[in-house]
Amino acid sequence: MFLYSQNLINTNQQLKAVLEFICSESHKLTNSGIYYAIQIYFKIGKIVNKFDLINEYKSNKHYQVLYSQVAQQSLISVAESFKSFKALDKKYKKGELSNKAKLPKYRRSGFFALVTYPTQALKPLVDKIRVPLGTTVKIWFGLEGFWIKMLSHLNFGDIKEVRILPRNRCFYAEFVCQSQPEGKPQLTLDKCLGIDTGINNWLTCISNVGTSFIVDGKHVKSVNQWCNKIVSNIKENKPQGFWSNRLAAMTEKRNRQMCDAVNKAARLLINHCLQQGIGTIILGWNKGERQEVDLGKKTNQSFVKTPTAKLKNRITQMCDQ
Fold this sequence. Notes:
It contains 10 helices and 11 strands. Strands 1-7-6-2 form a 4-stranded antiparallel beta sheet. A 4-stranded mixed beta sheet has the order 10-9-8-11. A 3-stranded antiparallel beta sheet has the order 3-4-5, with no helix packed on it. Helix 1 crosses helix 4, helix 2 crosses helix 4 and helix 7 packs across helix 10. The protein is globular and about 65 Å long.
């Protein structure tokens, strides 16, 4: 089981330019790898592996400007996506999937892709981690590497990799760690917690051991309504596809608030189950409800914007953990 923690990188003008450069090159290298993998698939019906891609692109300019392990990780992610496509395609042919699997698509031009550094490339120093940038970046930008803040609750020995994640004109350091087992809790599978999802009452929970509680959804709904109102005012009389720094900041702030709400709601629910020894969670879920819901324009907006699917996935992750 892997755990993920994120930390916003405080950038100056030079560091921001460097991060944009390496994320842009990772984006271009990823698209190059997808192109090669698609051509091989259609010509000889083979799904490429990571060694095929690395050997093919060692002399590619996008590969060479990146730190070598970073470039390899970008191509490995392409190989893994095609491997997943193959597995899903097999399931579809056996009738185990209702929707046909599609080949990985090219990334949109002009965007950034995440950059992944394995632990071997990093150097810790007290509460910081040094991230290398490679020879080419050193020559072009005069910068050998940069430092990111180490999160206080993490140990460097537990970190498997660090990702530079571009999102809404910001850059985050994402730490991927191996979770440590904490002992098996005493749970009874016959004890169940039933969950019904909604809007004002985000989660209505009742168990067969005589407990019940409601996770309030009005705060999430209020945040979404406020964000929608501000975004609508900014985009008024603007051309389609208009985007700005203010819109990016608004979107990122909303995403952080939604992530915080999801984590707190899931933790509240899991703690309740651990305290009561509940070993089974049943969550009511209608497939396609978000796409087909018809509750009126105003209610639809609140319903669709509420991150209930993310909350369901987070609860699943914590149950596995």
